[in-house]
Amino acid sequence: MSTTATVVAIVYLVSACLFIFGLKQMSRIRTSRRGNVVAAIAMALAVAGTLLELGLVDFRWILAGVVAGAVIGAFAALRVPMTAMPEMVALLNGAGGGASALVGLAFFYTHVIEARRSGTVAEIVGSASALTLFLSVWVGALTASGSLVAFAKLSGRMSGAPILLPGRHLLNVALVLGTVAVGVAFGWAVPGMGSGTSLLWILFVASLVLGVTLVIPIGGADMPVVVSLLNSYSGVAASMTGFVIGNNLLIIAGAMVGAAGLILTQIMCKAMNRSLANVVLGGFGGGDSSPDSGAGEYQNVRSADAEEAAMVLEAARSVVVVPGYGLAVAQAQHAVRELADLLNQRGARVAYAIHPVAGRMPGHMNVLLAEADVPYEQLWEMDRINPELKSTDVVLVLGANDVVNPAAQSSPNSPIYGMPIIEAHQAKNVFVIKRSLGAGYAGIKNELFEQPNTSMIFGDAKKVLQDLIAEMKQL
């Protein structure tokens, strides 16, 4: 082994270890920022090792790509608000999938078309490379188009409600079988006759269509699962691309991303008490509802104002905040932190109850509250907080809906029955801060609103919290 090859192997080994270490640290809130930095260093080493392995290349285009990517990435990191982070993640997933597909296409043109060798694609590059090339383009392209649809749904550019095409299941089955058939035919195609190129482009286009048809029937309530699943797809596509170009580190990194995304997807499904097949095929979870859409008729709903809520909070010794997407929309994370600080100063214990699928992506509430420097020890997961709620004086529900709906436990006919929820209804007092009585993504009535210990405070979450802070300071 030459000196260069030895150095590259060591760099790849160090980079792989750092990826594993960074991923481990990102699994905990307290160390997630450090883990992100470690993973970024690992990626920088991976790029450096790859360039060293390639040897003499034209660095002008590479440098141009690095500069363009750095500028776009820095701009997005600084300008994209936390409410738009789910859309950002969807775009990043799509970029990863699209890059894998494009690398696969480039490999075909450089190693098959330009090589001008006789034989089939499988004979020219080998059966294993032909198979992984097919998988790279297939999974990468459907990840790219599916992620763009997820981005459009999350950003409001497309309806968040399920778009149910007639015969969509048959269409998807036909597309899957068709792309597999094209992939098999591609491996036995003769490039010199033009069939290999045509089949590869047919595969690419059909995969793009498949990505769209797989995601558009999925509603907004299932977007956390979709985002994590697409993340897994992008990792699988990257790993397949690593096999195509013979890059061991890309294989390892892609496999880790694919496995981590799949594990996270399973966690999300468990948190919703639904199977992955039910999410992908069910079309459950519409977009934001109108004030009365799907909510049914409410009886005995009590409302309160900021002054009444402040008087109850003044006497509270324990307060639990349940954040939801409404908190993100209102950009109220700093206001809730200020209110929590006031309560802490008055001797109350404050905790935040984090439901795994609250918001629009896994960990959305954690990221949002971290932006406001909420102490990590105050973020409690659902399994930990639920036993404490019976003895909690006040629960503040901020923009959450389905994740606190008692129907999940009491109504067998409810579409969310069996879904683990944050049991806010067990507390002594519950204040729900919400713009209206509108239904959540499940499109059903929230039984919490009619509980005798619940009071509704209607309005924008940030404005209501600011009013609460002003009232508390006067007490």
The percent range for helix content is 55-70%
Unreliable runs, pLDDT <50, ≥5 residues?
A: 286-295
- Work out the helix count: 18
N-to-C series of helices and strands: HHHHHHHHHHHHEHHEHEHEHEEH
Structural class computed from helices and strand pairing: alpha/beta
Total beta strand runs: 6
Main β-sheet, in a few words? 6 strands, parallel
- The termini sit apart by 76 Å
| Backbone shape | elongated
Strand numbers in spatial order across the main sheet: 3-2-1-4-5-6
β content, as a range? 5-15%
Q: Averaged pLDDT, please?
A: 87
- Rg over alpha carbons: 25 Å
Total number of domains: 3
Keywords, please?
475 residues, alpha/beta, Rossmann fold, 3 domains, six-stranded parallel beta sheet, 7% strand, elongated
Could you explain the architecture of this structure?
With 475 residues, the protein is an alpha/beta fold. The chain has three domains: 1-79; 82-282, no CATH class; 306-474, TPP-binding domain (Rossmann fold). The protein is built from 18 helices and six strands. Strand 4, helix 17 and strand 5 (429-434) form a beta-alpha-beta unit. The longest helix has 29 residues, at 85-113. It is elongated.
